[in-house]
Amino acid sequence: MFYPKVIFCYGRWQSINRMELLLQVAFPDLEEFLIAEMGNLKVIWHSELHSDSFCKLKTLDVVLVKNLLNIFPSSMLGRFHNLENLLIKDCDSVEEIFDLQALINVEQRLAVTASQLRVVRLTNLPHLKHVWNRDPQGILSFHNLCTVHVQGCLGLRSLFPASIAQNLLQLELLRIDTCGVEEIVAKDEGLEEGPEFVFPKVTFLQLRELPELKRFYPGIHTSEWPRLKTLRVYDSGKIEIFPSEMKCSHEPCRDDHMDIEGQQPLLSFRKV
Prior knowledge:
This protein is mainly β. It has helices spanning about 15-25, 100-105, 160-165, 245-250; strands at about 5-10, 30-35, 60-65, 70, 85-90, 95-100, 115, 120-125, 130, 140, 145-150, 160, 175, 185, 195-200, 205-210, 220-225, 230-235. It has 4 helices and 18 strands.
């Protein structure tokens, strides 16, 4: 039996029944999946897929799918451990990329699943609220991420959950453009006070047209960017990039120098 490695589904697949029929077929060798211009599609994955389907998928592109609400439901996350490249573009209704709610709610802790995801590009998703709708808290690891580019996501308030941001040891490029983010890393009440975020391989950081960006993380913290070579900040006037030397050289450095929102500067002279 022939198993395809690449599938392209365009707007001519207007019948949802035909799409569901396609996704009920087993795809044990599929490596690339492109879905584009399917205006009626609300759910990508059939609820009863064959056990071997999509286990080798490396690239998923979803473009101009207007009624889709999320990309990966909790029940599907275990299938995509080989996914390396993810592009979601011009999907007006998408609110979440990774739905982790069910994983977090299970009483018995699951074994850690390591994702091979390396490149994430999210473009023009005006209703996107969460890339990850819950902090995976170690249940799911994304430590292989190398490139993250988020653009045109005006409904997004934060990018990374704290546990993911603490394990981005392979990240090299981070771009956030024209988004509604107020903080790059979301608050995690389970973290100890003063968490440390280390990005040992980041060489390029761009923050452009982020009028609501106030802070990196909402609390006292440290961040290290030892290999940062290019820093570009445009029209993101609410965040302080570097610490004020006046505060540390002429005033006592006290914890209460930060307000309760933890408005620290983005970068530290010590590690940049």
